[in-house]
Design brief:
Residues 320-330 have a biased composition (Acidic residues). Residues 7-273 form the CN hydrolase domain. The chain is 31% helix and 21% strand. The chain has ten helices and 13 strands. The strands form three sheets. Strands 5-4-3-2-1-11 form a six-stranded mixed β-sheet. Strand 4 and strand 5 form a beta hairpin.
């Protein structure tokens, strides 16, 4: 009989400190203490919460946002650095698995990064959003496939995606194929209106059903004073309303607590991990319900960079050319395309 395992999850919906990244970090640490006090084992924060999501780029044209963009650079954390050290120490002290969204500064570029800390404080994953959306492309660089994976933690296998990455079915499938049990979803919140919240709910509930995993989704919140500060023009300010759907969803697609759609708060729910197997017994999208000989994913999971050094490249020998020639000849004899050879398994990593 499967041993019962319960994970208490917390999804955090709070406002950042728009003046100081250190102030936002303090809010993160206070939320971790509060969640731990309520018995949480896992805590998920909103998208790029530290130091703050770049709301300014959504309501103002790029030509007038230079100062705010530079200010974001000034407060954006590096990985590793003092911010990650502080969160790691809190995770270790409280025995928490933490999923934190940050604006990561890497020399002259910013990235939308998701960090997963284990309960012992170890940083198990740093991934970057693979395609920033719309206005975000003026703010962040693009990530790579190295972060499209789940990691083992004290609460189970955890994967993460940010915002509209959930509209990329292949990105989601990469995490499914890596057998995530808990999916951390992060959105900015306080944007676009009710339609954004509605779309978000559909998206996370569908992923829970399709992946057969729990989804813990956190969205951010802006106070009225913060909205007015970002957008003094009332017409523009309307674009910074609604769009909050902090929620915790079971592998059967059901809310485990009423979602938080306005205001600051901590959403808590207990995850009965036996529901993962219960769902997958019926429909395992990367197992008995998959057809890898017909449909599969090829994923380049190498870390990308501006320079690839010779030491990182595969060695070459004359036999490599001979093997390639023979494979091509065999494929021609079969009357097939050689590319068929890589389309095996639900997700093949290069």
């Amino acid at each position: 009989m499967t041993e019962q395992r319960i994970v208490r999850a917390a999804a955090v919906q709070i406002a950042p400190d728009l003046d100081d990244g250190a102030g936002t970090l303090n809010r993160v640490l206070n939320a971790l203490d509060e969640a731990a006090g309520k018995g949480a084992n896992l805590v998920v924060f909103p998208e790029t919460f530290v130091p703050w999501y770049p709301y300014f780029s959504f309501v103002h044209p790029p030509v007038v946002t230079g100062a705010e963009h530079l200010r974001l650079y000034e407060h954006a954390p590096t990985v590793p650095g003092p911010v990650t050290d502080a969160v790691a120490a809190a995770a270790r002290r409280r025995g928490l698995v933490v999923v934190l969204g940050i604006n990561e500064r890497d020399h002259g570029s910013l990235y939308n990064a998701q960090l997963i800390f284990d309960a012992d404080g170890a940083l198990k994953l740093k991934r970057r959003k693979i395609t920033p959306t719309y206005h975000e492309r003026m703010i962040w660089g693009q990530g790579d496939g190295s972060g499209l994976r789940a990691v083992d933690t004290a609460v189970g296998r955890v994967g993460a995606l940010a915002c509209w990455e959930h509209y990329n079915p292949l990105a989601r499938y990469a995490l499914m194929a890596d057998h995530e049990e808990i999916h951390a979803a992060q959105f900015p919140g306080s944007m676009v209106g009710q339609i954004f919240a509605d779309q978000m709910e559909v998206t996370i509930r569908h992923h829970a059903l399709e992946s057969g995993c729990f989804v813990v989704n956190a969205t951010g919140w802006l106070t009225d004073a913060q909205r007015e500060r970002i957008a003094p023009d009332e017409k523009l300010r309307k674009a910074l309303t609604g769009g909050c759907m902090t929620a915790i969803v079971s592998p059967e697609g059901a809310h485990l607590a009423p979602p938080l759609t306005a205001g600051e708060g901590l959403l808590i729910a207990d995850l009965d991990m036996a529901l993962v197997l219960k769902r997958k017994r019926m429909m395992d999208s990367v197992g008995h319900y998959a057809r890898p000989e017909l449909l599969s994913l090829v994923l380049d999971d190498r870390s990308a960079g501006p320079v690839r050094r010779s030491a990182d490249l595969p060695s070459w020998s004359a036999s490599d050319d001979a093997d390639a020639d023979q494979a091509e000849a065999d494929a021609a004899d079969r009357g097939s395309d050689q590319r068929v050879a890589v389309l095996r398994g639900p997700a093949r990593r290069s």
